[in-house]
Structure formats: structure tokens, C-alpha cells
Specification:
It is a single chain. By secondary structure, the protein is α/β, with parallel strands linked by helices. It is built from 15 helices and 11 strands. Helix 8 links the parallel strand 8 and strand 9. Helix 2 runs parallel beside helix 3, helix 4 packs parallel to helix 5 and helix 8 crosses helix 15. The two termini are 24 Å apart. Bound molecules: flavin mononucleotide (FMN).
Length: 333
């Protein structure tokens, strides 16, 4: 067994690997969380808008699925204090807040036994996360799948910026990481770990339709796009002036690109979207995917994925900038 990669993050949370399952709304359910945490990563439940029925179903599955640390994530702008309160009753090791002002919930989480993780998309949000006393900060680049800042930053330059700004608070890198080389790169940038979404959506335990797994395996980064069109078309309550989402290609993107204001005022077009969903012409939800989707070619169990990511990362860090011996199967690759 290879030596484990230890960081300020693995020490703080008491996990084996510096690998975190992003709290993907809806798709990071209790089974996926339990599997990631049992394998030595940190699983975060996708609590998203704090939907109570979903939480009542999935929180017990996560809590009973592992005796290792696990956590839950919420969309800061969408939740009420009750969602956080309910989650804390299950004794998570971490609560993550993303997108919006964390201050209404930060003190309550800090008074609990859970670590406060705050995901940030820019320097102002990073400074705010430091001010509210975050235990861990996630620096999210625009390569990410799913939602993020309309005017976001790229992972490669953004992560070290946040690492310097937040020191000594440990930082996780997010956005565009889908294999062990990406995890190694995050550590080389000074991050204490990697938070990974898109890659974990294509695992056996993710709560997604098989058509989504297939789309992720076949999808190409060049076909992903950040936009508000699909949030507006489906009537989502996201603050679209601030946040867009990266998805795979979609007919409504082609039809409405650049005409978001017009779409917002066109109730007929939004009804067309619902009608297209109802007759199966478009999928019920957009396929949220990041630029690293090219690197996804299989549908492993979450445990196998965590192990592979950790092993590949150790290998990448061992060999980065060194010549492999000629008889190494990966020499010259
Ligand atoms: C399907 C999907 C759903 C997501 N839902 C959430 C969410 O509910 N809350 C959140 O904080 N982040 C969410 N994210 C963003 C992740 O936290 C993370 O920043 C992102 O997945 C990292 O980029 P990657 O997809 O390239 O790994 C979601 C991402 C995806 C792919």
C-alpha cells in the first residue's frame, strides 16, 4: 500500500486522503457520501436548497453509511437556518456553504462540532470566508461543472492566490480536477486537497439517470458552456446576474444564447421548455459538467475512484519533473 498524502486538511478532518466529494445538489446522495467517506475521502451530501424531504431521506443514509467523517453542503443564498439545524442533528464532521453571504449561518456552524467549509469564486468572497472564520476554504475555478461565478477565475491562477490570502486556513482546489494528476496539481499549487464534482457524478452510487452517466462518459470539455439560459428556461431561482452554470450542450442554449433577458420575459418559451421535458424531447435537468469531462471514460464505484485518485496523485507527485526509468511502463507517457 502506497504512503498516504497528508495535509493540513487531512489532519483537521481526520480523513485518509485529501479528496473531497463536492456536495452536488441532488446527485451527491447518502450512498455516494458513505462510499467516499468509507474509502478515506470526505463525502459531502448535496443538500443544495435545503429541501426537507430530500434531507430527511438522504441524511440518515449518509450518517448510517459510514463511521468515518462526512459532511453536508448547502447553497447559502437558498437555505434557511432550519436546514442547517436539521443537518447538524446528524453530527456531520463538516458543513459547507457555497455561493452567497455565509455570515447568517457561520456562527451557528462554528459553535457546533462541524468544521465550516466555505466555497468561494473570487477574491472578495475569499476575504469574506476568512472574516467569518471558515475552517476550510474551497477555491472554485470556472472550469467547474455546475454553478459558479459569472465572472469567475481559472483554477490554476486562482488557487495559489487564495492559498496566500487565506493562510494558514487550508484551501481546497475545485474545478477541472478529474484524475490523480489534477489532485497532484492542486497540492503543488499549495492547496491542502481537491474538491471534485463532475468526476464523482459518473460513479455507480451517484443519484443520476443512466443517460447522464452516458453523457458524461461521452462528453467533451469543448462542448461544455457556462450560461444562465437553462436556469431561466427551467424557472430556477438562481441569482443569474451573479451565477451561471457549466453544462453539456443543450438545444435551448443554441436557441437562446445571448438573449437571456428576452427569455426571462417570455413565459411561452419557458412553457415550451416544460413541454419539451414532458414529451421527453429534452432531459428533465441540464447535464451539469465541467471542462475535465473528457477525462471521464468509465463508471467506477466511488470507492475505486477514491483509491485510484489517491494512488495516481501520489505517483504524479513522485515523478513530476523526474525522468522515469526506461523500464517503467509509463516512461515517456
Ligand atoms: C452536477 C453538479 C451539481 C453541483 N451542485 C452543487 C451544489 O449544490 N452546491 C455546491 O456548493 N456546489 C455544487 N456544484 C459545484 C461543486 O461544488 C464544485 O465546485 C465543482 O463540481 C468542481 O468542479 P468539477 O465539476 O470540475 O469537479 C455542483 C457541481 C456539479 C457538477
Amino acid at each position: 500500500m502506497a504512503m498516504a498524502l497528508s495535509t493540513e486538511f487531512t489532519e483537521l478532518l481526520g480523513v485518509r486522503h485529501p479528496i473531497v466529494l463536492a456536495p452536488m445538489g441532488g446527485s451527491a446522495g447518502g450512498a455516494l457520501v458513505g462510499a467516499v467517506s468509507r474509502a478515506g475521502g470526505l463525502g459531502l451530501l448535496g443538500g443544495a436548497y435545503g429541501d426537507r424531504a430530500w434531507l430527511e431521506r438522504e441524511l440518515p443514509i449518509a450518517a448510517e453509511g459510514t463511521d468515518q467523517p462526512w459532511g453536508v453542503g448547502f447553497l447559502t443564498w437558498a437555505i434557511d437556518a432550519g436546514a442547517v439545524e436539521r443537518a447538524l442533528e446528524f453530527n456531520p464532521a463538516a458543513v459547507m456553504l457555497s455561493f452567497g453571504d455565509p455570515s447568517p449561518f457561520a456562527d451557528r456552524i462554528r459553535r457546533s462540532d462541524a468544521a465550516l467549509i466555505v466555497q468561494v469564486t473570487g477574491v472578495d468572497e475569499a476575504e469574506q470566508a476568512v472574516d467569518v472564520g471558515a475552517d476550510v476554504i474551497v477555491a472554485q475555478g470556472t472550469e467547474s461543472g455546475g454553478h459558479g461565478a459569472r465572472r469567475g477565475r481559472s483554477t490554476l491562477p486562482f488557487v495559489p492566490l487564495v492559498v496566500d490570502l487565506a493562510a494558514p486556513i487550508p484551501v481546497l482546489a475545485a474545478g477541472g480536477i478529474a484524475d490523480g494528476r489534477g489532485v497532484a496539481a492542486a497540492l503543488a499549487l499549495g492547496a491542502a486537497g481537491a474538491l471534485i464534482g463532475t468526476r464523482f457524478q459518473a460513479t455507480a452510487e451517484a443519484l443520476v439517470d443512466p443517460s447522464v452517466s452516458k453523457a458524461l462518459i461521452e462528453g467533451r470539455g469543448q462542448d461544455t458552456e457556462r450560461s444562465s439560459v437553462l436556469d431561466i428556461a427551467r424557472g430556477a431561482s438562481w441569482p443569474t446576474e451573479t451565477y451561471t452554470a457549466r453544462t453539456l450542450a443543450h438545444p435551448f442554449l443554441d436557441r437562446w444564447r445571448g438573449r437571456e433577458a428576452e427569455l426571462a420575459g417570455d413565459s411561452r418559451a419557458r412553457q415550451d421548455y416544460q413541454d419539451d421535458v414532458a414529451r421527453g424531447a429534452i432531459p428533465p435537468l441540464p447535464v451539469w459538467a465541467g471542462e475535465a469531462v473528457d477525462l471521464i471514460t468509465d463508471l467506477p464505484s466511488a470507492a475505486d475512484l477514491v483509491t485510484t485518485l489517491a494512488t495516481e496523485a501520489e505517483d504524479a507527485l513522485t515523478w513530476a519533473g523526474r525522468l522515469r526509468p526506461k523500464d517503467d511502463p509509463r516512461a515517456g507517457s
